[in-house]
Design brief:
The chain has 357 residues and is α/β, with parallel strands linked by helices. The chain has 17 helices and 15 strands. It has three domains: 129 residues, Rossmann fold (3-Layer(aba) Sandwich), CATH 3.40.50.10800; 104 residues, NadA-like (Rossmann fold); 78 residues, NadA-like (Rossmann fold).
């Protein structure tokens, strides 16, 4: 989804940006903060032109950033496509490390900047390239589907990548009885439920080898990786909210547990949740995902009654601020690089994903 045209943003004065932010965020941010954010956003938009840069903003960005400087906002699949197609010299990825790596994989001649080196991901950290190689040795010939929330060297060991929005389509596109699906335990469980596959989770032995009970029937091999945000939502949370708001529509990200998605009214990617809110009418909505996204959706849909169950903010997404985005363009930091041997192999897996849609 696009935001304002970048040329329109560049022409906006500090006062115009402030008024725009106030209209969208006045109910959730104090006035003095919006004025400071407007000054930063104006500076960033000017630097963006000087550097011939494009700014990509993930749906989890904090509201003042999300609603001011990105040329495009969306989920990881949407932004991967934008990164692949841009002809700007510089890509500033307001997201986490694996997203910046994916942009570099798809558009290697561009300079890709990430505003903070601390913007990692618990899912990406949960698995290594060596883990994938061990799984392929334990299950020879079984295709590997890797969630895009992984680092480049893991993607390079995979047959195809996926996002939460196209995971079912990717798995079904392989036409095989069995797949390895990595690394999100809960997303794998949700995909197994939707595709009717029985899933097993191998264990890592002290020797580094992979063990699994292959005496049982299985069609999917998963991994014990989780998102530190989405794993915290529970069925009890849903029960308590429904007790107070019986008419609420609850939307859960597929990185939530299968029990949580089953107890919700809708489960889908961040873009899918946004479309659901935009296209339906309900007395109340509740999004079980990263806190800032709830604020962003509420700001974009002032006519909708959005509830908040904000117990956790992603500590990695929280590293990306307007100040650090400004500094990234000002000092051309921090440059994301992917070794060419890894990039070429990872490109094949990501490109296959993009062709599926």
């Amino acid at each position: 989804m696009s935001t304002l045209d970048s040329r329109d943003r560049t022409r906006m004065s500090v006062e115009a940006i402030y008024e725009d932010l106030k209209a969208k965020l006045g109910d959730i941010s104090p006035d003095f903060e919006l004025r400071v954010k407007a000054e930063l956003a104006c500076e960033i938009n000017q630097l963006k032109v000087q550097r011939n840069a494009v700014i990509l903003g993930h749906n989890y960005m904090e509201p003042a950033l999300f609603h001011s400087v990105p040329d495009f906002v969306g989920d990881s699949l949407d932004l991967s496509r934008k990164a692949a197609l841009t002809d700007r010299d510089v890509i500033v990825f307001c997201g986490v490390k694996f997203m910046a790596e994916t942009a570099k994989i798809l558009n290697p001649t561009r300079t890709v900047l990430i505003p903070s080196l601390k913007a990692g991901c618990s899912l990406a950290e949960s698995i290594t390239a060596a883990d994938v190689r061990a799984l392929k040795k334990r299950f020879p010939g079984v295709p590997v589907v890797t969630y895009v929330n992984t680092y480049a060297d893991v993607k390079a060991e995979s047959d195809i990548c996926c996002t939460s929005g196209n995971a079912v389509a990717v798995v079904e596109s392989l036409g095989t009885d069995t797949v390895i699906f990595l690394p999100d335990e809960y997303l794998a469980g949700n995909i197994a439920r939707q595709t009717g596959k029985h899933i097993i989770f191998p264990s890592r032995l002290p020797s580094g080898k992979i063990a699994a009970d292959t005496t049982v029937d299985y069609q999917m091999i998963g991994w014990h990786g989780r998102c530190e945000v989405h794993e915290r939502f529970t069925v009890d949370d849903i029960r308590r909210v429904r007790a107070q708001y019986p008419d609420v529509i609850i939307l859960a990200h597929p990185e939530c547990s299968p029990e949580v998605t089953a107890a919700s009214d809708f489960s889908g990617s961040t873009n899918a949740m946004i479309r659901y809110v935009e296209q339906t009418k309900a007395p109340h909505y509740l999004l079980l995902t990263e806190c800032s996204m709830g604020d962003n959706v509420a700001a974009a849909n002032p006519d909708k009654e959005m509830l908040r169950l904000c117990t956790v903010r992603c500590p990695h997404m929280n590293q990306i601020t307007l100040e650090m985005t400004r500094d990234a363009l000002l000092h051309m930091q921090y440059v994301t690089e992917v070794p060419e041997k890894i990039r070429v192999r990872a490109y094949r897996a990501v490109e296959r994903m993009l062709k599926i849609g």
